[in-house]
């Protein structure tokens, strides 16, 4: 069996030879004495045209009556057709039907809406749109690994179950057990009394991980910092969870994050690394997915290719939060309307982020040095005592795709912060230890992988870049 991508790669060599290709029908056309099957096997965006002759193909009638999505194995001769639109076609000798398609196949209609396709999560990977998006997602993931591996970063897997809330926002999903032999119990008597049939009232939901309270992680950062203090440069790439009840086009309850952490690095080192990484991923995707991008550029976002080229070759803007607020205040004075009022100290809203990156700077923008009160406890306090060495990367069309900072490496300052915020120092004792034993300046960031894929594809909703999105009200299949 040869994959279609191989036929394109080695067409010169395979021309005139017998090959077998297995895939699914995109269309079947019957012209009476001959017919065409457009076949795709998922190995590349391009299809294979299979030509059938009534005379030569024993089951011509069976094949030419197929409709919908049928699984076929086709054997024939690869004929080079340099003057036609496709560089080759397969002249079929035998076609075996492995699976036919029931008449109620939901994707009969061309150009189904993305909203309809969200109700068909199990079938939507078969459409051109999702074939393009998920190949780009895969190529981008591999490019991220290459970028960090080429720079000698160590890939660390951080735990998904944890007791610490890295971002301190309380947006954690509790982990619990349904095992009646190992219940998250209030007392032994309750277990005894229930006879194995526990009710919610018998259970202490705050002690449900073998007698401890535990949650799904919102970020692997704190664990990545441990490893950075041993390996220097590290990165994580894994799922994270947020119990944010926000039903937006860019929030999911389960999403993937890339979190590099670099020892002996400051805020500028983080921004330089992040900018180089994003350009590397963009360039790799443009190189490896031209057909996918061409389709997306035509049907999803007409400015996509121009934008990717532009971003890959120009510098990102960098502006302090204080400057950014002045820019927004000036926009308000000039008559621009925001839903949410602007003043120093506010957490920038998506509308503000988008104004900065789309209207003002017109390119990806790092906003730096945010007020300490709106950022997480681990960010390094600046000398002004009011702002922290944080930076978010904002991009046109989306807003924030990266959040990061230089970390507070001074034990006394960090202890004071934890105390001020009313956090439990016991819970962060390992993290504080890192400041006791060989602490050093370090910085890191978190790139939301789905937001990057949205940026790379022009797709406007996070539900359409996740293979099986977990958003508010959606966890089936
Ligand atoms: O800004 P956040 O919350 O930063 C952190 O979690 C840090 N601990 C990262 C670090 O420094 N190692 O999240 C980082 C990024 C955001 O910029 C956004 O792209 C993405 O994660 N993100 C989400 N993506 C999808 N759905 C959500 N609910 C998201 N929340 C954050
Ligand atoms: Mg953030």
TrEMBL record:
One of its GO terms (biological process) is asparaginyl-tRNA aminoacylation. Keywords: Aminoacyl-tRNA synthetase, ATP-binding, Cytoplasm, Ligase, Nucleotide-binding, Protein biosynthesis. One of its GO terms (cellular component) is cytoplasm. Residues 110-467 form the Aminoacyl-transfer RNA synthetases class-II family profile domain. CDD domains: AsxRS_core (cd00776), EcAsnRS_like_N (cd04318). Its EC number is 6.1.1.22. It catalyses: tRNA(Asn) + L-asparagine + ATP = L-asparaginyl-tRNA(Asn) + AMP + diphosphate + H(+). GO terms for molecular function: asparagine-tRNA ligase activity; ATP binding; nucleic acid binding. It is found in: Cytoplasm. Homodimer. Belongs to the class-II aminoacyl-tRNA synthetase family. This is Asparagine--tRNA ligase. It comes from Parolsenella catena.
